[in-house]
Amino acid sequence: MSSPARPMRWTKGRIALLALVVLYLGVVLVVPLGALVVRTLAAGLGTAWTALGDPAALHGLKLTLMLTLIAVAVNGIFGVLAAVVLVRQRFLGRKLLDSIVDLPFAVSPVMVGLAFLLIFGNGGWLQPLGWKVAFAFPGLVIATLFVTLPFTLRSVAHVLEELGTTEEQAAITLGASRWQTFWHVTLPNIRFGLGYGIALTVARSLGEFGAVLVLGGAISGHTQTATTYIFVALDERQEAGAYGMAFLLAAVSILVLFFLERMKRKRFLR
User: Fold this and answer.
1) pTM
2) Is residue 187 part of a domain?
3) Which residue among 45, 237, 240, 254 is least enclosed by CB atoms within 10 Å?
4) How far is CA 23 from CA 17, 27, 158, 250, 254, in A?
């Protein structure tokens, strides 16, 4: 019979470590968000809300929403398929492919935008084909897909590795086809990982700035997203619109965070 766990003793070292962590997180995370809220309230929520009714702001929000939906749909499907391939299949070059998937984590979005400009911009490799990608909506889609690619894939792959193949092999042994096994066994088991990855994809799509700025050019009413609208509005001293948009995006991101925490609690309570 195991003995009851002893209560943790709060030594000076533990208290100092806790204080250091709380201070660091407060300075890096809480204080900037608090400053944004205070500045928005100081400018007036009504003024900020009115500024968001500007056609450029509304177009930026609409564009960001469209890019987010596309990223969720494409990377949701691709993430599941790629995760199954990388975790369940064994083939030459699998480890290399598995490493390449993490490139969006390591490469700066600005560098990504510049790299795509070399391919699709003026004088780019694919310019003779006549494809209008740079400084157009397709360029924004490509940039967003690139920076959000790993999130769903990694979340689903982690769950697949934890699950193993026991249930899937049992289903196949009982006569289920590969598709039936995936639909009735694999997919229900990975739903939390899939939901977690989609939520991260949403958050990343909403906040993307560097790649869409370089590849899209932030053309008002054309390729200006919500984040690039903030950049342009600040540059043009339209502070109400900039703070209002930033406040809105921050609020949505916090809601996504609460959703992620709720999903984690549900998973661990199963």
Assistant:
1) 0.86
2) yes
3) 237
4) 10, 6, 31, 21, 20
